[in-house]
Design a protein that fits this description.
Number of strands: 0
Order of helices and strands: HHHH
Shape: elongated
Mean pLDDT: 87
Oligomer: single chain
Radius of gyration: 20 Å
Distance between the termini: 73 Å
Helix content: 55-70%
Largest sheet: none
Structural class: mainly alpha
Low-confidence stretches: none
Number of helices: 4
């Protein structure tokens, strides 16, 4: 029977760091997924251009990617990783996604008939 002889503070610190790493991984995967959906959308409409009727759908994908980027950047900064340029290069984040990072759209109001 082995006993962990580390002080409780060390054990707690280890668990906190482990959870931070896990959260970073989840946020990174979410960013990758949202960027992939945006790229798939753009690839589907590349030849014909995005019709006006599809612009709201594309805008929604850009906003979702911007939200995922924001969450990832905030989580990284909370762990002491302050330079976001690495994320932008590694994940090849489009400028339009970077510009909407952290923006929250107001819910649309139902139209009265």
């Amino acid at each position: 029977m082995s006993r962990d002889l580390r002080p409780p503070v060390d054990i707690l610190h280890y668990e906190i760091v482990r959870e931070q790493a896990s959260a970073l991984g989840r946020m990174g995967r979410t960013l990758e997924q949202t960027l992939a959906r945006l790229r798939e959308f753009d690839a589907t409409h590349a030849l014909s251009g995005t019709p006006a009727s599809m612009q709201p759908a594309r805008s929604k994908l850009v906003m979702e990617a911007g939200q995922a980027l924001w969450m990832f950047v905030v989580q990284r900064e909370a762990t002491g990783l302050r330079d976001s340029r690495h994320i932008m290069r590694t994940y090849n984040v489009p400028g339009e996604v970077q510009r909407c990072m952290g923006l929250v759209l107001a819910p649309s109001k139902p139209t009265s008939t």
